[in-house]
Amino acid sequence: MRISVITVSLNMADTIERTIKSVISQECDELEYIVIDGGSDDGTVDTIRKYEAYISYWRSEPDHGIYDAMNKGLTVVTGDVVAFLNSDDWYEENTLKTVTEQFNEETDVLCGQVKAYKKGQLIGIEPGRKISCGELFLGMCYCHQAIFARRQVFEQYGYFDTRYRIAADYDWFLNLYGNGIRIKVVDFVLANYNKAGISNKQLEIVFSEFYEIGRKALSQNKYMSEEEKRICIFRQRENYKSNMAYAVMNTVLESTFSDEQKALEKQLSGNRYIIFGTGIRGEKFVKLLLKCHVDIQSAWDNNEKLWGTKWNSLLVDRPCRENVKNNMIIVASVKFKQEMVLQLKKMGLKENEDYICGDDLFAGLYSGKELEKNQGKSGGFHYLI
User: Fold this and answer.
1) Mean pLDDT on 233-262
2) Which of 328, 348, 355, 373 is most buried (CB neighbours < 10 A)?
3) Which fold has domain 199-385?
4) Cis check: omega of the bond before 319, within 30 degrees of 0
5) Of 166, 180, 175, nearest in space to 208 by CA
6) Which residue blocks in 112-225 are alpha helix, DSSP H?
């Protein structure tokens, strides 16, 4: 089996040598290695030339982004199976041998795991567990560095859609999934992924593209029932709100005085708040409200062991209507949000009058697509709220 590996680069002189060496050192009877550079001027091209005896094809010229460069690589591949390895990532020692052993006649796309690094430190293996079908519509679950696909798949279903700046690989993957392509998932780490820092504004683009692509793919899916789609749509909406809230929160917390902070201060003024949920998200809300000069009265938690203790300088109370005392409650948890909202409703408390879900504080601050209205339609079915 002939395997074609494509590396795209732009000014990656510090890391591309490790990438190249991890490819050309693989045990693989038929390896085609292609490097597409975007016109680097930092020494990247010198490194490529250093190893050009091991590279089947390379060129360096301006392009229109990473997916345009990846598409250029696809126009020249000749292998049976194609993979992409970014110029700051690298393969495991036996990656291509493992792929050769695991790829069979019933496989069109092979997906493995990656080790994720940040600032040189290993932070985990992704995905770290089995992915459900519904989760595929929430965002890219498999890193393209560990995806190997038959060349015929690209020929039949197309290349990457360059209209998407960051998530075109997700759009490509969901298109394959929706068309019933045979995807095999293996529990082998195939690549090492450098999870470099990404700005919060870029995060907003990522999350917006994930949401748009996921909705489109769901509306076109031929194999799911209407009920399954409705459930997925609800999860998409909640996931989108949570992700965008995360990006906006980080923008406020990491900036000196942003437009988002100014808008939040105006929105939050005039109330005193109780933070419901003492997890990581709750800590972020404490920092956020303090930065916005907002009065926080206390915290709530359902863990009895925390009642009467101090958390982030706040007294932790049991959730109780008598403890509201004209304060607005912020539901901080993402994981337990639905259960906490139901709990508040059973107390007789009203949304937007007595409590608000934390993610909803940021609804007017997103850039990008707005959430659909209650009666909006797409693909023949209603969006749920």
Assistant:
1) 91
2) 355
3) Rossmann fold (3.40.50)
4) no
5) 166
6) 151-157, 168-178, 200-220
Res 119: pLDDT: 86
Distance CA 92, CA 348 (A): 56
Amino acid, res. 312? N
Nearest of 23, 55, 47 to residue 145 by alpha carbon: 23
Which of the four pLDDT bands, split at 50, 70 and 90, describes residue 130? confident
Segment 121-132 shows an average pLDDT of 90
Q: Which two tokens stand for residue 158?
A: 């197309």
**Taking the CA of residue 115 as centre, how many other CA atoms within 13 Å lie in the half-sphere pointing to its CB?**
13
Q: Which of these, 91, 73, 74, lies nearest to 151 by C-alpha position? A: 74
Quick one: fold of 2-197?
A: Spore Coat Polysaccharide Biosynthesis Protein SpsA; Chain A (3.90.550)
Q: What is the b/e burial string over 163-201, where b = at least 16 CB atoms within 10 angstroms of the residue's CB?
A: ebebbbbbbbbbbbbbeebebeebebbbbbbbbeeeebe
CA 376 → CA 214, 299, 347, 368, 381, distances in Å?
16, 37, 32, 17, 9
Distance CA 29, CA 2 (A): 8
Stated pTM of the model: 0.85
Residue type, 363: A
Separation between Cα atoms, residue 8 and residue 70, nearest integer Å: 6
User: In the chain, where are the structural domains located?
Assistant: 2-197, 199-385
pLDDT at 12: 96
- Determine the average pLDDT of the residues in 10-33: 96
Phi, psi of 339 (to 5 degrees): -65, -40
For residues 192 and 120, the answer to whether their CB atoms sit within 8 Å is: no
344's enclosing H/E stretch is helix 337-346
Phi, psi of 183 (to 5 degrees): -110, 125
